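Troubleshooting entry. Yesterday's outputs looked truncated, so today I'm pasting the complete records for two proteins to confirm everything comes through intact. If either block looks cut off, that's the bug. Protein one:
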Amino acid sequence: MTRNLSDVKIAALSALSAYCKAAWRTRRHEDPPPTSDTGARPSSPEEQAGPGAVGAQSTLWRMRTTVRDTPGSLAALCSALAGHRVDILSLQTHPLGEDTVDEFLLRAPAALASADLTHAVAAAGGKRTWIERADAHDLVDAPTRVLGLATRTALDAAELPLALRQLLGRCTIRSLPATPVGGGRAAADVPVEGVLEDTVMRLRAPEGGVITVERPYLPFTPTEFARARALVELDARLGPRIPRGQDVLTLPEGNDITVRRADTGDLEAARAMHERCSARTLGMRYHGPVGDADRYLNHLLSPRYGRTLAVWTPSGRIVGLGHLLWDGDETEVALLVEDEWQGRGIGRELLDRLVAMAVEAGCDSVYAVTQSSNTGMVAAMRGLGLPLDYQIEEGTLVITAGLDSVGVAESLSRSGEPGNA
């Protein structure tokens, strides 16, 4: 799917890197728009036995349909579903004036196709019906799920984009700073109460920027908008925060290092590491003028745009940084290890932990942007033992690792609990 980078990412990469990433993305296939009233994606044979399968006899579905807000309309829907031996596991209603959006979690016979479900709903008065496979996570009732997302957001500011995505389903989330680093278009003003426009909602970020949430084909309801605003308000009230757990590791030569989460409070230590890095090392990481590297650090360390791990020596120096960056509906990994500490396994340790975090966050894949001559990064990505895709443009290499294989479990076992870092 062709996607645009956020202003932060545009600032953080040179024009060459941005061009290459855009070219790489244009070759990716876009999900087809709905061809009928359902808005459903065509199911592949793999999907037929995928997340929605709950045994040989039944399948889980999430369905949303709009009906007139009149007595008997919901009863007609329920009768139509019962006529096809469909169990209603949960129901949420979203009032819309003269209409109501009804959202169902259904258990249907495995032989019943999504088209049969939508036809039955249409005959019972449902319109603008949308349906997709559900999984076991959808069995948690809505209040419990929202409370869980609020707890995660309260513990870690980097969880806000992930919580919004889990709250709202398949969507793209971008954070735009009020004043982009390196120039570019500033985020448009958004009122305190936010803006809801069909399939797009814009919320004022606590630090003054804008959080944009976009969902293809399925409009947001006022209820969903209110829930999203509540999560953002919670984040704003709690202020900057990250988990402060840490791990002490012993390198092969016997040196101890500490790995923990980092944020903007570690900015000066990160800049000091930049000063100790060679121009070649900084160029491999930032793909642009070395003098611009420090300007990106404040954004890279901000939990708003992802998670950062820092490697500390006993003397209090940062000698390595690993970033997991939320890039719309994709996830980037990036590494920087100080010259004198390279070749000791620090980059591999950071990458393993970042991948474990990505798996924990429910990401489908991670990608790294580097140069084709950066053999260390290439080796680290290959060492994950995951399926890799390589795209190269003008000397810039994009390596994408899929996270839906057995190799992910091995990475998790090597890295330990992601939250401890």
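Protein two, checking that the full record survives here as well:
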Amino acid sequence: MWTVIDSPIGELRLVERGGAVIAIEFSPFTDATADGRPRGSRKDDHPVLVECAHQLAAYFARDLKEFDLPLAPGGSAFQQQVWAQLRLIDYGQTATYGEVAHRLGRTNAASRAVGLANGSNPIPVVIPCHRVIGANGTLTGYAGGLERKQLLLSLEQDALF
């Protein structure tokens, strides 16, 4: 099941399967899912999608700092480990790819693999891949585009002050 919501970073398609959020997609949307499986039909009143939309609206309104949703991102064991680490980066904070690698018990050499896993995150915003930055503090790639990444980071910074 899926629905589409408006947000400050453009339309977002929220996708649910088996009672959990499996994807949040940026517009423009593609017809194929990342895992090649059918998305299902649109169902704007599905409880998981309604709750996801509600929490995203609260996040964008700066009223929510931690999401509490059932999540089921599809990925390899390493990707799952990286995504779990991303969820530990506090609202308004950032970490470098190297820092995430170290938190996983890896060396800086794993920074590239962390970056690839970060870029494959199927549930952006909720799994905050936008909070990962380059070693020199610069914004680096973001599946939704650097403009969206900057907006998300600014939204969180502004909410702290």
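Both blocks look complete. Sanity check on protein two: The two ends are 38 Å apart (CA to CA).
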